[in-house]
């Protein structure tokens, strides 16, 4: 978990990765509960481990963790895209519903105007006074 956290936060120092790998190996040996002499030997190494194999292991581990980070980022992008698509489809659906309601309101207005003739005032010419004789 410590190594993953280090890599995800941008760490890439090979020496630190090597130390983290050694700590993980020691933890694995301790968890398995191997025999006493081997356990003591792991606690105080007689000579530093060669960096050849462990360096490759650390590099491979770093690549695997970077792949995992990229996969997580890709998944997050896919989720965001799906959320945007869902929000867009919901907005389009609401727009369609609004247009249908507006059309229905228009039809109801027309119907109301046709069923209430008393609202329509007859158009008469403006009243004017009769012309006076000359």
From TrEMBL:
User: What InterPro entries does its record include?
Assistant: CCDC17 (IPR038800)
Query: Which residues, by range, are in coiled-coil regions?
Result: none
Task: Show the segment(s) annotated as Disordered.
Answer: 34-54
Name the PANTHER family for this protein.
COILED-COIL DOMAIN-CONTAINING PROTEIN 17
What protein name is recorded for this chain? CCD17 protein
Record the organism.
Answer: Loxia curvirostra (Red crossbill)
Name the lineage: Eukaryota, Metazoa, Chordata, Craniata, Vertebrata
